Amino acid sequence: MMRRVLVIALYGWMAVQFGQFVIGLDYVAGNGVNVWFGTGQLVALTAFVALIATVITALVFLFWVYQAMSRARELTPTLKITPGWAVGWFFVPVASLWMPYGVMSEIVEGSGESAPAYAQRTRALIGWWWGGWIARGFLSVFETFASRAREGGGPISTTSVTMIVLASAVGIGSAWVLSMIVTRVDRLQASVTGMARYSPDFRSISPLGLVIH
User: Mean pLDDT score of the chain, rounded to an integer?
Assistant: First the structure.
């Protein structure tokens, strides 16, 4: 259940990011004016909507992380990270740059004894997800500095919006990979606990649950 809620939230977040990408691209192409949409206020509006979507999706994701780590520890009691710290590491300064990668790796490791090859392929996706998310974070930081550099009350600079466009593009890719990881972890845990039957070769499956032959 939580997996489906998270995947839906991720798809919604990606839709918001895509809207931000299109509007930002229009703003940059128009050299500071939204040609297609007729108003520069849309850049600020979509940024606000994106912030709300990010907060909601992050909360759902952290609930999933807690549950997934709890199940992983039931399957593999030797795991070092507790469910509480699986969530907590996302908020620890500096360590949050790499520990979330370790958290997701442990979740996959603890869930993949029934299909080690499938778990290994899933673990390979974690680097792409977290690398993309870190890159998005740095782009957002650059955007913040660019925003502060402009004169008070002035229009949003094209440099700032360019950073938003790039961050949105990278974020969409990162969220898509995360939806794949979440789905794969759910399948691994379900195969062990007997919640569902899957073919031995673990065929590819889309985040919304459609089997791909």
Answer: 84
